[in-house]
Amino acid sequence: MTSDSQDIESATTAMSPVITDAPDSKTRRYDRQLRLWAASGQSALESSRILVLSGTATSTSILKNLVLPGIGHFTILDDAKVSNEDAGNNFFLEGPESIGKPRASEAVRLLRELNESVDGAAELSDISSAIAKGASYFADYSLVIAHNIPYSQLNQLSEILWSDVTLPHLIIVRSAGFLAEFSIQFHEHTIIESHPEMPPSLRLDKPFPALLEHARSLDFENMDVTDHGHIPYAVILVRAMDDWKAKNGGKAPTTTAERDAFKKSIYAMKKKSDEENFDEAVTQFRRAFVETKVPMDVADLFQDQGLTSLTPQSSPFFHLLAALREFCSRPPHTLPLSAALPDMKADTKNYVHLQKLYKTQSEKEKDEFKEILAQSGIGVAGVEMGMVDDFVKNCHGLRILRGKRWGALDANPTALASALLSSPREAATHLALSSVSVLLEQTPQKAITTEAVTAHVLNLLPKGTELPSEVEEALGEVHVPSHSHLDESADLTVSVRSPTADLPNTAAFLGGIVAQEAIKMITKQYVPVNGICAIDLIGCTTGIVRV
Amino acid sequence: MDANGVSASNDWQGRYNHIDQILEQPGPRTDESFGAGDTVKDFLRNQCKVLVIGAGGLGCEILANLALTGFKEIHVIDMDTIDISNLNRQFLFRQKDVGKPKATVAAEFIMKRVPGVTVTPYFGKIQDKDEDYYMQFHLVICGLDSVEARRWINATLINMVDSDSPESLKPLIDGGTEGFRGQARVILPTVTACIECTLNMHTKPTAFPICTIANTPRLPEHCIEWASVLEWPRVHGDKKMDNDDPEHIGWLYSTALKRAKEFNIDGVTWSLTQGVVKNIIPAIASTNAVIAAACCNEAFKIATSSAAYLDNYFMYMGNDSIYTLTFQPERREDCPVCGNNSLPIEISKDMTVEQLIETLGERPDVQAKKPSLATATSSIYLQSPKQLEEATRPNLEKKVSDFVEESGQIIVTSVSLPFSLQLIVHFV
Ligand SMILES: [Zn+2]
Questions:
Q1: Is residue A362 one of the residues assigned to a domain?
Q2: Is A357 within a domain?
Q3: Using the beta-carbon criterion (under 8 Å), do A83 and B14 form an inter-chain contact?
Q4: Which residue ranges are recorded for the region named Disordered (chain A) (predicted)?
Q5: Domain count for chain A
Q6: Given B6, B68, B291, which is nearest A91 (Cβ)?
Q7: How many A from CA of B341 to the centre of ligand 1?
Q8: Under 8 Å CB-to-CB from B345, ≥6 apart: which residues?
């Protein structure tokens, strides 16, 4: 190539990508979130349809954080008219101007202003009529969220949505004053892109042939000093280990003394004291001998019931997982190699070369994986190639969550008692909210005494369980209005409809945390809560009660 | 009150029924000083004055929560204008507001949506205001993305504490988020750990060594840094680069892409270019909502004593399930702001002034950008004005031990330090 032609090329590339690659206005709007869940997560969000039961301050707070990032559609199902106190604690009502109007319509109108591309609808009927329509009513949605709905309705709703795995997941949210909890009802949730903190293994203890060959081909001794200071630590470690094995009957160092000696041998390879690449190799020296295995979390998945009962109808995830299990059963008994190479002290030439070696090997192993998948002969047609790439790329972070039906914990006195022992604060919060919600329905017109709630809590637990002080503290915080408060109230019906405090800050906190979990469920990225997340905004603590 | 129950302060009957459930009776963990009923309601709704610093991702949420909670007198400071990339979370702003000052638009929105609340905006820097201004507030809540601004308000509020006047102690509630993570904390100046005490908990943006950028690029980021740090000034001279100008970003992108091609490096994209150049931190509505709610909940509890408040640091991680930790970082005795005002530093006898300057920039508990150094009697190295910089430049290569003896003092000043830091030098 002449210098002229290069100039022409650079002259044209200087401007053209600027025009074609500049982001459109949608990408600019969503830039800060696309950096977390990318276009794939965004498109999942945009095709989601969410049903929210009740138009409380908490419900609209949750929706706000789903409308902003751009879900496809939401419906608020609520037959209430805006009360004086609704107008005081809900940001998506217009104060006194909204009083008396349908709460769902007002909220939908104001929520839609947040994002023009989101569709919203108000359904002004009560929850029991929706429940009466049965499963088909809910089948249209990808997720249902219910805040502070009556206990018996929640029971019916969760039963309907549990009846078929294809029905939407349900997020149950409860709050009273400074206390709150939520849980997600799902049968199974599989995650490919969990975004784990731990990077995939470089497999330096089991170098692939091309890497070993490359490490052996370098003449460390007679190399130019500058080049010597630019060999990536991965190559140094592979070479150092190869040399060590040659001198030690093919064995890697095992005892502490041997490992120290190995570390010293890396130091000894230095030509100058300030070679940072060798310093890195010394820091990372364990990678040369710590055995790369299939990570425990992934190995556990190979025992999952989804594999033992694999059929052509199983979801693509399990066919891919079966192929992965087969891949890992073959030498070198590791996950397919990742092409992602972390930065290392090196010059461009050495680093890019190493990157190429990893990329080539990674492609080769992915082809092997695809071959296994093809040979398995089941359900491959249903697996898109893009999904295979994502699966292999993220296989070190695969997750399967298996859930229980809502209410499973309350039906299990032993589990409740052990939760009270292991996480008293969280279990107490759950017991308080759960009992108050049961009692509120049983005695809607009356104030509920602490004695009555305590008796209900004790009823859920094995006989003779001693209540820790956290339970008393939680019960005292749910702030069920006292009888005198109701008497003083000029508008009795208002107090009865919302007999627990939906505080703006608690609502906002739940609004964030529940929307976040909804986003994880919809995008199938990151790892959602499995269990009951209990929140105490007095001490400002949260915790998960395992179900 | 008139016949419809609407009082002059716009409080319609039942407006605060939810909150009043909390304010009318103590809970098991409520302090004895709690003045249940009218006393506490009057303070919250008619007397308490709150300052919100930042009207961005956290600030919008904070303003809405405070207004609904019943705070009626709110001030907000922000120096930024609205950008399209704010709209995925800063929910008081609309497309039509792009380009307008955040503080003003946010204040107008809150006052329209929540009747009876006064929000006074200031479109400018926190440093424009003096101690008299800050003294008028009962509480300060920060929702900032800049460590520098946090350090400044922290030092200012701590300086204001006068032990003879309890009013001078202004609780500082600070929130911060990054992707699915965040933190909220309560700082009682001179009582609990301050921003400076825990500075090493703030992550510093990744810096790439200049020699890597210039000579041995390996990552796409290295090519982008090359374009912005080295090529831009070489090609454009004194013309300042504007991060928000798409033409400038476009130039950096194509320049970085060309270099990446030359070195066989993959991965330079427009989005990455923008991310590196602007040091973009991912931000979503949900995390901001959680942290802002935690901050405002603390403001409410402190203003009303209706429940114990956070002691004193709440850490939130939402990427893998939900993990939070509430803990008590301790005050640092040698905290340069709330402690005894001097920092012992151990250095080699051979360390040069230039190396010390580099160390001060890198140390997570100091983070001094371009610091100037002096002893009590003479200058060691001054960054400005130009003449003094030139005059002291030869000192950069000299040893620190040429200027101070063992246990001697060096005074460090820097634009990123809201105070002058005294180093006590120990040679090892
Ligand atoms: Zn301090």
A1: yes
A2: yes
A3: yes
A4: 1-25
A5: 4
A6: B68
A7: 9
A8: B423, B424, B425, B426
Residue written as token pair 């949506």:
B113
> Pick from B166, B280, B261: which is nearest to B220 by CA?
B261
A35 vs B contacts (CB less than 8 Å): 179, 271, 275, 280, 282
Query: DSSP state, B229?
Result: I
Which among A35, A90, A99 has CB closest to B282? Answer: A35
Residues A268 and A367 in one domain: no
Domain range holding A243?
A: 209-288
Per the annotation, the verdict on B211 as an active-site residue is yes
Q: Which residues, other chains included, contact A43 with Cβ-Cβ below 8 Å and sequence gap of 6+?
A: none
C-alpha dihedral sign at B362, B368, B371, B377 = negative
Q: Are residues A48 and A146 in the same domain?
A: yes
**Is residue B327 within 8 angstroms of chain A, CB to CB?**
no
Same-domain check for residues A263 and A141 = no
Find, among B246, B262, B263, B253, the residue nearest to B231 by Cα. B253
Segment A119-155, tens digit of pLDDT: 999 999 999 999 999 999 999 999 999 999 999 999 9
B263 shares contact with chain A (CB less than 8 Å) = yes
Q: How does pLDDT run across B323-351, given as a tens digit for each residue?
A: 999 999 999 888 989 987 788 899 999 99
- Classify residue A213: in a domain, yes or no: yes
Indicate if A357 and A309 belong to the same structural domain.
yes
Selection from A436, A319, A473, A303 nearest residue A388 by Cα: A319
Residue with tokens 């349908």: A102
In a domain, A8, yes or no: no
Quick count: other Cβ atoms within 10 Å of Cβ B42? 12
CA–CA gap between residue A37 and residue A30 (Å, rounded)? 10
Of A485, A500, A507, the CB nearest to B24: A485
Q: Are A28 and B85 in contact (CB under 8 A)?
A: yes
pLDDT digits over B266-304, tens only?
Answer: 999 999 999 999 999 999 999 999 999 999 999 999 999
- Indicate whether this complex's ipTM tops 0.85: yes
State whether A33 and B284 contact (CB < 8 Å): yes
Which residues fall inside 5 Å of ion ligand 1, going by CB?
A: B 194, 196-197, 335, 337-338
Question: Which of B249, B284, B291, B317 has the most A C-beta neighbours within 10 Å, making it the best mutation to test the interface with A?
Answer: B284
Domain B8-203+282-327, CATH: 3.40.50.720
Cα B10 to Cα A57, B195, B203, distances in angstroms:
20, 38, 45
Task: Considering only CA atoms, give the Rg of chain A.
Answer: 30
B364 closest CA partner among B205, B208, B200, B207: B200
Residue finishing a domain among A225, A256, A288: A288
| B4 confidence band (pLDDT: 50, 70, 90) | very low
Name the burial class of residue A13, with classes exposed (0-12), middle (13-18) and buried (19+) by CB atoms within 10 angstroms of its CB: middle
Contacts of A196 in chain B (CB under 8 A): 320
Q: Which fold has domain B342-427?
A: 3.10.290
- Listed by start position, the domains of chain B span 8-203+282-327, 210-278, 342-427
Instruction: Nearest chain B residue to A232 by CA: give it.
Output: B218
Q: How far is CA A454 from the centre of its chain?
A: 35
3-state secondary structure (DSSP) of residue B295: helix
Identified catalytic residue from B142, B211, B223, B295: B211
d(CA B254, CA B269) in angstroms, rounded, equals 9
Q: Provide the angle, in degrees to the nearest 10, between the axes of the packed helices A504-523 and A57-67.
A: 40
- Asked whether residue A245 falls in the same domain as residue A116, the answer is no
Same domain, A87 and A184: yes
User: Where does A101-211 show beta strands of DSSP type E?
Assistant: 119-123, 143-147, 169-176, 179-185, 188-191
Question: The dihedral of CA B35, B37, B39, B45: what is its sign?
Answer: positive
Domain B210-278 fold: Arc Repressor Mutant, subunit A (1.10.10)
